[in-house]
Design brief:
Helix 2 (74-81) runs antiparallel to helix 3, helix 5 (137-144) crosses helix 6 (162-172) and helix 6 packs parallel to helix 7 (188-198). With 348 residues, the protein is an alpha/beta fold. Helix 5 links the parallel strand 4 (127-132) and strand 5. It folds into two domains: 4-112 and 337-345, 2-Layer Sandwich (Enolase-like, domain 1); 117-335, Alpha-Beta Barrel (TIM Barrel), CATH 3.20.20.120. It has 13 helices and 16 strands.
Length: 348
Amino acid sequence: MPLRISYAPYRLLFKHPFETSHGVRDGTDSIFIRVEEQGVAGYGEVTLPPYLEEKPEQVIERLRAIASLQPTSVEELMVLLNNPQRFGSGAMGCRNGLHTASIDLYGKRDNIPVTQLIKVLNLRTPITLVTLGITPAAEVERKLRDLPQSGGLKLKVGHAVSAGMILKVKELDHRPVFLDANQGLGSVEEAWALAGCAGDRLIGLEQPFPTSKPLIQRELQEKHETCVYGDESIHDIVQLKDALGQFNGVNIKLIKCGGLDRAKAMANQAAELGMKVMLGSMSESSLGCTAMAHLAGQADLLDLDGPWLIKNDPFVGMDLRNGKLIMPDKPGIGAVLKAELDFIPICA
């Protein structure tokens, strides 16, 4: 009997309008995927900010194409996910959703947590981050109250209010800060100025310049002792190798690379290159963030704060207590569905 594959369109809503250098949005369109085998269900997530190439309707088309092949086991589905003709560069979100659902099902079926399935052996304890979008200084205190305790604060920058925001955060909060420009800065001098506002509280910078400007990315990293992490510039292992020197760190995201298997391969490669690792997200729910958190032992920074930024999370999973990551003690991903999602079955 073929696997049963179904999907549920959903819009994750932020507690507050979330601003980055890409613009302001109130939420993110998502598609949750369910794969069932002999009464056991695994869940995956495809959360697609509007600036990504991949769109929800394309994800649904790919799900239908995979279902039409009628895979009869999760092992068969995993083989299909490694076909580059079906999952090229513009289909990484869909591949990740199916891979997450598959490995969740696999773990539940065999009563094994995902950390064991992907063989995470390192025991590093990363710094946990929670994010504050671009915010006028007068609103910083109110928004800080909504964020849980963490090891550090990630501040979105790239707007005229950025310097004032950084200074206000330092006045009100004791935590170290990490600055993420999402390609929004124009010069090394601008990056230096914002880094100067953070001062000795700065623990990293992320993707300050557009992907089309590798030379100034390299110039900044060579001149600044703080680690600069590549995000939009690095989607896979090939780009990771090419980016060495431009960046001394990488922000790995499931939606970018296509799944936990590829995220782990990138983390392994980064370690070999001597690069630092951040585990990031596209503001996914507790499902996607808990899935990625299984790789925490191989990371320096953990930026998986979607569950605390959104107000209609349909899953419950990982937690932060006194700034420390707490993982659920369950097989598979460990995230549990708590809402009634309207899953639509795909008939092969």
